[in-house]
Amino acid sequence: xxxKVKHRGTKKYVKLEEAIFSEFIxxxxxxxxxxxxxxxxxxxxxxxxxxxxVFPELAAVKEVCFVIYTDDDILPxxxxxxxxxxxxxxxxxxxxxxxxxxxxxxxEWPYSPNLTDTLSISxxxxxxxxxxxxxxxxxxxxxxxxxxxxxxxQILTSKSAGVTVLKEYEETGSLKDSTRxxxxxxxVAHMREKEGRAVSKAxxxxxxxxxxxxxxSLKDPYSxxxxxxxxxxxxxxxxxxxxxxxxxxxxxxxxxxxxxVELNGGPTLSRxxxxxxxxxxxxxxxxxxxxxxxxxxxxxxxxxxKETFHYRQKMLHDPEQSADILQMFPRFLDTKGLILQDxxxxxxxxxxxxxxxxxxxxxxxxxxxxxxxxxxxxxxKKHLISALNEESDTADEPxxxxxxxxxxxxxxxxxxxxxxxxxxxKISVGExxxxxxxxxxxxxxxxxxxxxxxxxxQPYLLATGTSKAQVSSFYIVLxxxxxxxxxxxxxxxxxxxxxxxxxxxxKYDDALSSLYTFLQTTLxxxxxxxxxxxxKVRELRAKLLNKQ
Length: 548
Description:
Layout lengths: L1 E6 L2 E6 L5 H12 L7 E4 L11 H5 L5 E6 L5 H4 L10 E3 L4 H8 L37 E3 H13 L2 H13 L4 H19 L5 H14 L24 H12 L31 H13 L3 H10 L1 H8 L8 H4 L9 H10 L1 H4 L1 H18 L6 H10 L14 H12 L15 H8 E5 L4 H7 L7 E8 L2 E9 L2 E4 L5 H14 L9 H11 L11 H12 L2
Parallel strand pairs: 1-4, 7-8
Antiparallel strand pairs: 1-2, 3-4, 5-6, 8-9, 9-10
């Protein structure tokens, strides 16, 4: 049966075998890309809530359209209530009385976030009484999302540049990077006008909430509050903070450092593993390791590699032994599929299969569409043509196949990060591609390639064949070692490349860090909330997951 469903203004059909409420909810999550942990509320178009017991009868009525709400949406029946009683657009922040006083100082301009109207402050013992660095007691007030939304809207409508932002969102349902920067500039200019150069954390978070409340498609469904890419109070990062610091540098002012939360998720994290069948220890483990150095029997290699998984993980996280992993386990170099097996033991089948399931179905087309609005360069045009399987109008050598080209297009969206004091010099997208994949003609010796490269500690793909579009096999190159890929497709080989970072506990290449982090959290769903992400990564995720 086909059931009409509406979510945030978008209507779609959901197909069910039977009118079972739980299956309906699962189908809605898949259709609208709503995370599993998000609580859903179902009503009809008259805003009458639909419960599980009446759902089968209503589903049989063709004229009925079910409306889906999340905790972040305002139900029509609730929108007329007092905003203080509404919980659908509120969020919590950590605020000190010092920040509260700073915001209180200005109440003349009607558009300023007058938090005295919306903060609920209690001195009960249930609230934290920790002292901040400035000697102020921490309290937990409440921000009214509706008030924040109205404040941001009034700021934008008061400026011609802001009107441009509102008009683009109304027409397209999203914002281009240049328009988002324009919006941030307008809002930061207003904050500095009201508070001076020392804009409080509370004010920045208030406006960040207002932005995603006014522009729902900019909200990141995978982050805790949804607006951390605009401002994250825990790490003191985000587009608003970046702009504030840029203006401060330009005006030659200084700012104080803030304590930051350490985020250590990713491929080098030492993580606990559940029980795995038959793990060898002691002398038996050493015998298995010794056997692996001499046997080439595929089934026996797979069995012994599985039995020594825990030992291998301990070795990888021991600085004195990790460099010798390929010498201790040389079967990685001649037995295909061992990287996939170790990753499977680390995370399970569901996580291991997510990238190949999601990329072509949910992300590839959206990434290509998003890249089309970038400023066109000859390199981007060439990769878009390949990603779309279009004929090139030049006589150049054939480019990569559609899947590999689409991954490179993602690199155009998540370009290498600017250089800093602790980072190497920034490189171009063209140079960064060589950190991801290199082509080697099959008529030339692979040893020649290894001799001509430096011993990179970060892995990359080596594709061999007659041309980039006709690749016969892939290898992962790690410290001048060739690890054969089990897959002969570019998408499958890239999946193995990504997984090799976790299997060998290797950090991401600086030039590809944003790309890998995006794939790790957004597609593989690994270490969400514990991995450091740039605002650009969060912004792109919000755009793609909210794009229909």
